[in-house]
Design a protein that fits this description.
- The complex is a heterodimer of chains A (320) and B (256).
- Chain A has 320 residues and is mainly alpha-helical.
- Chain A contains 13 helices and two strands, in the order ααααααββααααααα.
- A two-stranded antiparallel sheet of chain A has the order 1-2.
- In chain A, helix 3 runs antiparallel to helix 11, helix 5 packs antiparallel against helix 8 and helix 11 runs antiparallel to helix 12.
- Chain B has a domain of 75 residues.
- Classes of the chains: A mainly alpha (320), B alpha/beta (256).
- At the A-B interface, helix 9, helix 10 and helix 13 of A face helix 2, strand 8 and helix 3 of B.
- Chain A: It holds the Pfam family BPD_transp_1.
Chain lengths: 320, 256
């Protein structure tokens, strides 16, 4: 039989009589933090030194091409591809997610098959495939299935690198986006849906007013992950000759051989776009975080903005 | 006696082969408060959820006024299940209060209450807000109209949930263990609101473990066991002069 450890009886209170107050206690010593900070400073200094003194970066060339017309056209194309593919992904992904969660067996099977295929093959393969769709289906036509044809067009004429890129990126993104939506939708408590139904809300209203807004908190972060992946994923389009950012700088350095500075130009633009997206994400997350925490947000910026929002709320409350 | 408004006949419900309700017959009259007691697993919550079609019955029928809940009679004796949208319209006549409150966390208290009157009863914004504030005053929370549910205590949230259920002026109110998720000190504020409602003539079907509330506020007490109604009668009949050994055993264990 196990015995309980006996109470320690040799503990004694100190005999000192002056009171101790922990209100002004010092922080604990953290030597490891100091060592790590010093290492960080040294490495950062080395990095800055390298960036400034290594002539191979050719910062003057970077500056020369950063705003050049070819590069800017590439940036615009990258943004255009991102926005169009993202729109297809967000809309089609939403439809796929709803189908996957529906009671209808056929819709569920169709959505699952789509996701299985487009998530299961590499994006690059899909892009090249769409670009070469003419090899599989030389002529696209509209008409009655197995019956007469009304209009037809040669695939190679219709499918430009741009269209192949939009379709390829969009359809691939939709498969991922569908799973992001689904994860968010199933994370909403069943009781919320029951309460909405019990109030007599019709299915569409339950979905758009109760389930989706609450799911958004779980949908937004991975969606921005995937949008940012999409921004960079557009660089794959250079393989099929779409004139996006990477293709543009490649066009320049293939003639000038200034490979490193032009890749830096491209990187600066990619970083700029993704940084703006980070900011957008912050505000969208804050919007959908309403009512989600008793104590409000954790970062100082968020706390400041929350205080402002709370003041606005209060003013509104006093008017009504 | 007032006229019956809810008639449950031969109601049966199976969950994957297990029979949870084995033929329930129950009538509720206008203005009546019926407390449903029984140990967990006796089928009392399932019975309540069948009334507003959150569960699909396996057999029997539920009439609310002249509506067959969840179904429509066709020519002859054929009966066809309604779509979710059609059921949504029927549910507007039934209010429900849940064990876990289920307030919408992304809406303020006022939005939670005013949404139904605004979007379903098509009241103007001012009317919806006025009705919501009246209800909030009635449950004693008018000062918390602009708070989010998470900023309220459990008892306060449940009182908001009651106001929300009342906002559509339902014919029948269903309470599914409304105090079971509350801290003991918050139970009273919720049962007080419910007792006031019962006294004001609301028609209520209350699944509860609060025997004190059932005794004080219910017109009739129904005791369920193993998917059937074992016994029913006035609180005095069921609490003090029960004919069933099973009921007396339940009372003894619950009242400790």
């Amino acid at each position: 039989m196990a015995t309980l450890p006996s109470n320690q009886t040799d503990l004694e209170l100190p005999v000192t009589h002056h009171p101790v107050d922990v209100a002004r206690a010092l922080s604990p010593r953290r030597p490891a933090t100091w060592v790590l900070s010093i290492i960080t400073v040294v490495v950062a200094a080395q990095l800055v030194h390298l960036l400034l003194t290594n002539p191979n970066f050719e910062w003057d060339v970077v500056a020369q091409y950063l705003n050049s017309e070819t590069v800017l056209q590439g940036v615009v194309m990258t943004l255009f591809l991102t926005v169009t593919a993202m729109t297809i992904g967000l809309v089609l992904g939403g439809i796929l997610a709803v189908c996957r969660l529906s009671d209808n067996t056929l819709l569920r099977a169709l959505a699952s098959s789509y996701i299985w295929f487009f998530r299961g093959t590499p994006q690059l393969v899909q892009l090249i495939f769409w670009f070469n769709i003419g090899l599989l289906v030389p002529v696209l036509s509209i008409g009655i299935p197995f019956g007469p044809t009304f209009a037809s067009i040669e695939s190679n004429t219709l499918v430009t690198p741009l269209l192949a890129a939009i379709v390829g990126l969009g359809l691939h993104d939709a498969a991922y986006q569908a799973e992001i939506y689904r994860a968010g939708l199933i994370s909403v408590d069943e009781g919320q849906l029951e309460a909405a139904k019990a109030l007599g809300m019709k299915p569409m209203r339950v979905f758009f007013r109760i389930q989706l807004p609450q799911a958004m908190r779980f949908i937004v972060p991975p969606t921005f992950n995937s949008i940012i992946a999409l921004v960079k994923g557009t660089s794959l389009v250079s393989v099929i000759g779409g004139a996006e950012l990477l293709f543009s700088v490649k066009e320049i350095y293939s003639q000038t051989y200034q490979t490193v500075p032009l890749l830096i130009v491209a990187s600066i633009w990619y970083l700029f776009i993704t940084t703006v997206l980070n900011g957008v994400q912050f505000f969208i997350e804050r919007h959908y975080g309403r009512g989600s925490s008793r104590n409000g947000s954790s970062s100082p910026v968020a706390r400041f903005l929350d205080r402002r929002a709370a003041e606005r709320n209060l003013n509104r409350g006093m008017e009504s | 006696m007032t006229q019956p408004i809810l008639r449950i006949s031969g109601l049966r419900k199976q969950f994957s082969g297990v029979e949870v309700l084995k033929g329930i017959d129950l009538e509720v009259r206008v203005g009546e408060t019926v407390a449903i007691l029984g140990s967990s697993g006796s089928g009392k919550s399932t019975l309540l959820r069948c009334v507003n079609c959150l569960e699909v019955p396996s057999g029997g029928s539920i009439w609310l006024g002249d509506e067959l809940m969840g179904y429509r009679q066709e020519s002859g004796r054929a009966v066809r299940r309604l779509t979710e949208s059609q059921i949504a319209v029927q549910r507007r006549k039934v209010g429900m209060v849940f064990q876990n409150f289920n307030l919408f966390p992304h809406w303020t208290v006022l939005q939670n209450i005013a949404d139904g009157p605004r979007s379903i009863l098509k009241l103007s914004k001012a009317e919806a807000i006025e009705r919501s504030m009246t209800l909030l005053t009635r449950v004693g929370l008018a000062d918390r109209a602009h708070a989010y549910p998470r900023q309220l205590s459990g008892g306060q949230q449940q009182r908001v949930a009651i106001a929300r259920a009342l906002a559509l002026e339902p014919a029948v109110l269903l309470f599914d263990e409304p105090t079971s998720a509350l801290d003991p000190e918050n139970v009273g504020e919720v049962t007080d609101v419910m007792a006031a409602l019962a006294a004001s003539g609301a028609t209520m079907l209350v699944v509860t473990h609060e025997l004190g509330f059932a005794r004080a506020a219910a017109d009739r007490v129904v005791f369920m066991d193993g998917g059937v109604i074992l016994e029913q009668g006035t609180p005095t009949e069921v609490f003090d002069h029960s004919q069933q050994a099973r009921t007396r055993e339940f009372m003894r264990k619950t009242l400790v």
